[in-house]
Write a structure and sequence with these properties.
About 75% of the residues lie in helices and about 5% in strands. It has about 290 residues and is mainly alpha-helical. The chain has one domain. It has a two-stranded antiparallel sheet. The longest helix is centred in the N-terminal third of the chain and has 31 residues, at about 1-30. It starts with a helix and ends in a 14-residue tail after the last helix. Belongs to the binding-protein-dependent transport system permease family. LivHM subfamily. It is found in: Cell membrane. This is High-affinity branched-chain amino acid transport system permease protein LivH.
């Protein structure tokens, strides 16, 4: 029983890393209708910004808040100066632009700070507690709690606030939104800015567990995209639940399914994606879109 609980809790902790990025991807999609492949690179850049301020002697929470503000400005600037030139054209072109921003952000981090592993301070203590025979770190529990809080805030933002409804309207039909008097350009900038700010929080939560490097989130981004597909592009709740599901099922399959083991556990999320795309293409928590023709 202790082993099972340990695997589940470790899976939830790992899944929270994927969920942090998945939430930012959902946020951009809800605000702009695009899949933002640059989210991992932007989160890493934000984590480095927070790291610089901690090295200047500022308290960690203050450094993270400053990084959030700077990241919001950078995200809004990226939308205004780069992405907007391609948003009204072929969606595939805009997606390629986000991949270019990912490469640019990663390259800037490597150019300025190099590829050395850097230890990022944690918001939570490194002590452990025992839960049903499993040893769990306070940092893992804190990360899970933070992701739950962010998920709730985003769910409320999109479902219960005027800003969230306006962002969704712009993403679904920018022309109709503009005719309704919504400032489409400004809302797109806000959407990218909010996603970059969320990326700063995600990067600061993840960096203590992975160590800070330019490629820190490359692998996690793949899992985050899988979580978004499984959970649904329109649901912050679905993205987090799917990320936790991936983390837990990976761990359980590695231990309890002999032919999978640790070598093949990476196939678990992609098998889930395959099944979900066949049975429920909009995702487990996503909304079915009806198009009139």
């Amino acid at each position: 029983m202790g082993t099972f609980v340990q695997l589940v809790i470790d899976g939830l902790s790992t899944g929270s890393i994927y969920g942090a990025l998945a939430l930012a991807i959902v946020l951009v999609h809800q605000a702009t209708g695009l899949i933002n492949f640059a989210q991992g690179g932007m989160a890493v850049l934000s984590a480095y910004i927070a790291y610089v301020f901690t090295q200047l002697g500022l308290p960690l929470i203050v450094a993270i808040l400053i990084a959030v503000v700077i990241s919001f400005a950078l995200g809004a600037a990226a939308e205004r100066l780069l992405v907007r030139r391609f948003e009204r054209g072929d969606p595939d072109t805009a997606v390629v632009v986000t991949i270019g921003i990912l490469t640019l952000a990663t390259g800037i981090c490597a150019w300025i700070w190099g590829y050395d592993n850097r230890q990022f301070p944690s918001l939570f203590p490194l002590s452990t507690v025992e839960v049903l025979g499993a040893v769990v770190s306070i940092r893992s529990l804190g990360t899970i709690g933070a992701i739950v809080a962010i998920m709730i805030v985003l769910q409320v933002l999109f479902m219960r606030t005027k800003l969230g409804l306006a962002l969704r309207a712009v993403a679904i039909n920018p022309e109709s939104a503009a005719l309704s008097g919504l400032p489409v350009g400004r809302l797109l900038m806000i959407g990218w800015g909010l996603a970059a700010a969320l990326g700063a929080i995600a990067g600061s939560l993840v960096a203590p567990q992975l160590t800070l490097t330019p490629g820190m989130l490359d692998g996690a981004l793949v899992y985050a995209l899988a979580a978004v597909i499984i959970g649904g592009l329109s649901s912050p709740l679905g993205a987090v639940v799917a990320a936790w599901m991936i983390g837990v099922l990976e761990n359980l399959a590695a231990v309890y399914v002999p032919f999978i083991g640790y070598d093949l556990k990476i196939a678990v999320p992609f098998l889930l994606v395959f099944v979900v795309l066949i049975l429920r293409p909009q995702g487990l928590f996503g909304r079915r879109i009806v198009v009139r023709v």
